[in-house]
Task: structure prediction
Amino acid sequence: MEDMESIQIETTFASMKDAEDMANLLLNKHLIACGQCCEIKSIYEWEGKRENTAEVLLKVKTQAVLWHDCEKLIKRHHPYKLPQITVTKMDGSKEYTDWIDQSTKR
Result:
């Protein structure tokens, strides 16, 4: 990934409060421009058992250069033993990606 690229990081939580707390922690450190919390249903295998769980998906927008800082902070504060932490390159309007750049530290 190029440093000035915009990215979206996704992770999941058991509660809206945990997702909002993580978004606020990342925002307070100026690592993200925004976070979006969405209620979802996750179906997966975990430790030999099929799970069908209500979760909250947190999607955050930031710069690629901040990816590793965000990942470290999420891992440090996440309540899950093995949290989903994924990253996707994000294309968008110049005005929107400029706002992401201006809203986050370098």
